[in-house]
Amino acid sequence: MEWKAEWIRPQQDMGDVCPVFVKEFEGKGAVKAELRITAMGVYEAVLNGQRVGSFVLAPGWTSYEKRLQYQSYDVTKLLGEKNLLEVTLGKGWYRGPVPDWNKEDMARKAALPAGLIAQLHLTYEDGREETILTDETWGTREGQIRFSEIYDGETFDARVEAGDVSPAVCFEGRTDQLIPQQGEEIREQERVKAARIFTTPKGEVVVDFGQEVTGYLEFCVDAREGDVVEISHAEVMDKEGSFYTENYRSAKAKIHYTCRDGVQTYKPHLTFFGFRYVRLDRFPGLEEGRLPDLEQFTAVVVHSDMKRTGYLRSSNPLLNRFFSNVIWGQKGNFLDVPTDCPQRNERLGWTGDAQAFIKTASYNFDVEKFFTKWLADMAADQCENGSVGHVIPACGVGSGSAAWDDASTICPWQIYLTYGDPAILRQQFDCMKKYLAFIGSTTKDPYLWTGGEHFEDWLGLDAPVGSYKGSTRADFIASAFYAHSTLLTAKAGRVLGEDVSEYEALYKNIVKTFRETFTDYRTQTEYVLAVHFGLAEDPQKTADALAQKVVADGSRLMTGFVGTPYLLHVLSGYGHTDLAYTLLLRTEYPSWLYPVTKGATTVWEHWDGIMENGDFWSADMNSFNHYAYGAVADWVYEEAAGIHTVEEAPGFARIRIAPKPDERLDWLEGSIQTRHGLVSSKWSWVELDGVKKVRCEITTPSPSTIVIDGVSREVEPGSYLFFADK
Length: 726
Ligand code: BGC
Fold this sequence. Notes:
The chain has 15 helices and 36 strands. It is an alpha+beta fold. Strands 11, 12, 16, 17, 18, 19, 22, 23, 24 and 25 form a ten-stranded mixed sheet that branches. It has a six-stranded antiparallel sheet with strand order 5-4-7-2-10-13. β17 (about 195-200) and β18 (about 205-225) form a beta hairpin. α12 runs antiparallel to α13. The chain starts with 6 loop residues before the first strand and ends with a strand. About 55% of the residues are buried. The site of beta-D-glucopyranose has 9 residues, from α4.
């Protein structure tokens, strides 16, 4: 679209105060009105007192320099005869210190103007058209939001009246990077009621929502002008039962609200928080000893508008709570960008985390559009040398780590597999190829990836003391992912009808060299990668050795970000389903269920975020809402429930259903709403004529191969019932 409007900004920098851009206009006789708008920051537009659209934190987060989304809203219904459009602008990701450790980037962002660009297109009864453009006829004034920023929160003064308006100033700004909205809009999705209010041993008054969420608090208060509400957020309480914020690191995550007279309701406008608890640092009545009512507090859950597609249930309440935690982990971290965590001073699109979780993510929710947009940012931000970026949007955090940069091949391939549309491969193919070329140019060995700086098996339990990195060899991981990305690029190219002989040859050479170089496997993750990426010469023997190692390690996983997503797949793929279930159902540390026994309502960053004795693992790197380890849910969909899409007919156009029951569960059920319809698989143990049998109930929307008790059957779409021995 051609932009005729100009970028405008306030005459004077308003510092922390969020500027409000205002425009009055006549609209008598208009029968249609469309507003196109975007900003350098995050905006909230209001026409005649009513919010325009429901996009929270618009225009979302992209690689702004190359791609800045604009939104189009039909505002016809909000139109009057005399109209007032008001747009408030927060710093958001565009101008805020995200991340707050990159000082250079912070300085650059702080110098950017609070820019707005908009075009309001009016169509009149008589066919006449008119476009109102941002220009000097717009005004700016200070608003009630006195401060708003992603990490630190929001300051709001309800006493502030609409004050003096000064003319806006036009400035030279680019429009060539403006693109129509591509991702899902971020929206308010649900409301969680406060579960309890209590006083801690330190005398702090705390409201508990019973669930860690991402979004913001809404409160209602009857106050006198000048009364102050001050709120802090937290994920967990400490060992003594007191409010704990240290793990937010430098993110202040606070609300400061100054009241007007009377009953009023407030929720932050241009920021978000990750929290389960809020502390009422100041609240009208508290000093006189009056506790507010629970009904005064609601947590508003905010995330990208993805449709829920996948469900997992079982007879085990702890496992069900874990499944719920995985879903909440996704809701909490799919806020326009797949973030590592929603609370501390990061909230960044870490690529390693995204590639680990994407399969689970794509079964739980329809994330095709969400990832199509994020991957386009990845391609846009790809470095000149072809490396991809630790985080996307890039924010100057660095690039070139194996398993992180490999998100560039793994993510598009998974989106293609789950949804079946090769368009994502077309969009990303150049990025994939450039990434492989980068590895080729940076490695010391032609057919391995050696050298370089990597995150390795991040947070692996076999890490040496004082290190975040597991003991798996860096060159092993990098070379294994080099093979895997080469294979995926070749596969993608084949789907697209490209000549992939170069990648096929490269892949063969990497596998050969890998086998010659890595003749032994030393860690659980090394065994896992060797089998899962098809590098082990004898996968059965290697998987058996892995099983032995896991048992020797105390039937415990020792893997980190790199090995964990594939561990159970490798075990159950080679006859060790029993052991896979042992790991899945284990409740002692370390395990997926251990945090559940400690009251987790989302997935933790660390297996022992809260240790047995109640101490925290550390104050520094201890998020209680990090989705990466939730990736094990894809094993439950694919192996426990047995639902697989077939690579040759992606998007579940053909399905292979091979449930793997275990007697430690009475029943288990998985279902996915695919592009072809609902596929579901439920097994339960029953007694038939005194004999214990598994009852398998399967519904499939596509031609399928059903494998039960080792017997394969080809079936048409429909519902089926089987009884089997195991
Ligand atoms: C993030 C991780 C991320 C990692 C990279 C952390 O600070 O929270 O999830 O992948 O850095 O090593």
